Amino acid sequence: MPSSFRTYFLKRTFYVFISIVLILSFNFFLFRVMPGDVTHIIIPKNPTNETVERLTEYYGLDEPLVVQYLIYMKQTFTGDFGESINYRRGAPVEDVLSSHIVKTVVLVGAGTIIAIGLGMIFGREAAWRRGTAFDRVGGAFFLVFYCIPTFLFALVLVTLFAQYVPGWPIEGEFSADYDSYGILGKFWDRTIHVLLPLLALVIESIAAFSIITRSSLMDVLTEEYMVTAVAKGLKGRQILRNHAMPNAMLPVVTVIAMNVGWILSGAIMIEIIFSYQGLGYLMWMAVIGYDYPLIQAAFLLEAVAVIVANFIADITLFKLDPRLKI
């Protein structure tokens, strides 16, 4: 790879490493600066003497703060996040997280991909047909949904389906008799359970991608090199595809990276309203249950996901924007 790209790549990688170390440090000290003894925060209520001794040794709670910090860093870099103290007492945090992460990736990952694709298509068409009925109606529609809070739209969906489609499931990931179904029955049951929260997520997210794509493309279409492309005899859709969209993608890539980075955090309000037990729902339960090791691990995963997504966006923008290569 060219030296300029290699230098940029190594520099961004170093920044990512420093950012992760700082987040790890913040994650460690956050619970140590809270009022009271950290032992009472990490060790569950009404523990046995054996549990107290085991967790004290595991976290190094009887050691100086520096030693505790080194133990924490070593455990984290080896994928050991401790034990859940309330949500699933005694279970390794990584085991608790794994099942919830899969559910969130299915819901929020699929919703984000659909929203990105449809949002960019609608935004592109609105910009290309600016001033037409399609642009005005579509712009008003997406602006309304962009301004509506996520939880409010989700509650509206729950109310409408509960009243007018009473047989449609509005909570959970599957039915109570899920185990009695065959393979196709289980697939269909999970599908209809995820459709409603998926719809709420897509409608809420698609508006942002549509608006930013339209705005960016509108700016590009007024540039002088667009007039030059027309003068050279290029066709309209050819200009849009080969000249306008690649340049309009720069700000869109940043928005996409932020949304992809937040996939692991889940759509907390949507997951709570629909009782969909993804990572966002798990975080909420960990907070109200004072399960600090679980909160620590979930916060760390989300922060690292955002950092990595932004790193990928930086590398992508370097490839797309020739001005960064100067």
According to CATH, the homologous superfamily of the largest domain is MetI-like
Large-scale geometry = flat
Mean pLDDT: 82
Query: Can you tell me the CATH class of the largest domain?
Result: Mainly Alpha
| Fraction of residues in H or I helices | over 70%
CATH architecture of the largest domain: Orthogonal Bundle
Number of domains: 2
The third-level CATH topology of the largest domain is MetI-like fold
How big a fraction of the residues is strand? under 5%
Radius of gyration: 24 Å
For the largest beta-sheet, the strand count, sense and barrel status come to: none
Terminal Cα span: 16 Å
Q: Low-confidence stretches at least 5 residues in length (pLDDT < 50)?
A: none
> Order of helices and strands, N to C?
HHHHHHHHHHHHH
Secondary structure: number of strands: 0
Number of helix segments? 13
Secondary structure class reads: mainly alpha
How is this fold's topology laid out?
Elements lengths: L2 H30 L5 H5 L6 H11 L5 H13 L15 H36 L4 H15 L2 H15 L18 H39 L2 H8 L4 H26 L6 H6 L5 H10 L3 H29 L6
Helix pairs in contact: 1-4, 1-13, 5-6, 5-8, 5-10, 5-12, 5-13, 6-8, 7-8, 8-10, 10-13, 12-13
Can you give a write-up of this model?
The protein has two domains: 3-77, no CATH class; 93-325, MetI-like (MetI-like fold), CATH 1.10.3720. The chain is mainly α and 326 residues long. The longest helix has 39 residues, at 183-221. Helix 1 (3-32) packs across helix 4, helix 5 (93-128) packs parallel to helix 13 and helix 10 (236-261) runs antiparallel to helix 13 (292-320). It has helices at 3-32, 38-42, 49-59, 65-77, 93-128, 133-147, 150-164, 183-221, 224-231, 236-261, 268-273, 279-288, 292-320. 75% of the residues lie in helices and 0% in strands. The mean pLDDT is 82. The protein has 13 helices and no strands.
